Amino acid sequence: MTHLTSHLPFPSSSSSSSSASSSASTSTLPPPSSHLIISDTLPSPGDFALYHLTSAALSKEKRKVIWVDFRAEGRGSLESVLKKLGTPLPPTTNSQLFIAISPSSLPPSVATTSSAPATTSSSNTISPRLYTDSSSQPQPSLSLTETYDCISAKLEARSMVILDGLSELLWMGMSATDVARFVRAVFARTRSTKSTLVSTLHGDTLPLTSSASAGGVNNADGDADRELLERLLRIGQGTFWRICHLASGRSGDVMGEISSHPLSLPPPASLGSQSQDASATTPSSLPNSQNQILGQTKASYYPSVPRCNPLQYRIEPSTVRVFPKGTGRGFL
């Protein structure tokens, strides 16, 4: 199990607790009707964050997980890691708690294990088509309609939907606008069922330091990735975890850094009894400083870890250790 919760807690979604207990109550998972965006880099992949969230959803909170695998990693890869962490996936004969959706990038002329979008293969994985035939177009076109329909059909109240590997859609030729429109549609669907949405993508072209950000980054290959991230950030209604490698280069004791950037206040339902006061979330009643609104000093808000002072982590055989920058917790 990873050690993320103590450093990156989320506000509890319980609304039955008292005001005093609500302010101190935290959760491992993002609150319902929220959106968690996770970016990573090739030297520092953010898979461990997904393992952390999936394990917590299945074991602690018993929430349904719908995993949309755009990276084509396969259920077996996730299953082997979670088993090592002590949270094995539910058996394939019982698909009510964990749903694996693996969109197929094969052209329509190539047969797959499932002949229809809603049909599952022997591994209990749903394989909707990404390419569709159209009589008005000579070439197959990319479409996320079947994938959206599969998510909608399996979505239940308080589920957690994971869109894993949105950058792969860009590399296949889909525009950032179309991918962002798909994420907006899925997010609207999850909000209607008080579910949680988690989106992952690559952020290799983002600057690692503030000085690099001021100087600008000229990389045409990363324009689509940056545009998609910007569009997702504009959706708001959640928080952004940025996972990246060290600007100083590889280290034997520190494998990467994590910063957390709140995009909005949590939904009223996650603020406990505080949500009964409607004026508590009006702009006129909020402090002028965003750090006062979204800082770590208040458990009822999303955690804020600035990029100038990020958390650092080290991957071990059966866990991930997270510690404040410079402390090392015995590693440095």
Automatic annotation (TrEMBL):
Record GO biological process: tRNA wobble uridine modification
Q: Which portions of the chain have biased composition (kind: Polar residues)?
A: 276-291
Biased composition regions of type Low complexity, renumbered to the chain: 1-28
Organism's domain of life? Eukaryota
Give the pathway listed in the UniProt entry for this protein. Answer: tRNA modification; 5-methoxycarbonylmethyl-2-thiouridine-tRNA biosynthesis
Segment Disordered: which positions?
Answer: 1-38, 105-142, 257-291
Q: Which protein family is named in the record?
A: Belongs to the ELP6 family.
What name has this protein been given in UniProt?
A: Elongator complex protein 5
